[in-house]
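Example record used in the benchmark description.
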Amino acid sequence: MFGFERTESYIESSSVQCRSRLCIVYRLDNGTNGMVPADPRVICEQNPGAQGCVTEQNLQDSVHCTCKCGGPKTSEQCDCPEPYVCREILTLGGDGIKGSYCVKPKAP
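Model output (structure tokens):
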């Protein structure tokens, strides 16, 4: 089954759509309380969560270009533009990827 868990974040480090080459899926939620993984390929407005679908707003709030804003200084870092905030995302892995990234703020 394809999908993203609402408690996790995923980073693509070779995204040609992003100037930084970093795209993040940050805590994508489909309203099923984690019972069905959120599938960004399936958009629905009428019955969020059905078959893993997400609303367009949830997709826009959770999937976006990002940049590294903190962590080991082995790569270029940025300042997060409004309304983004710098959040620690990766605690494992090499110094080039581990650290904090700009994300749209979400409630805990």
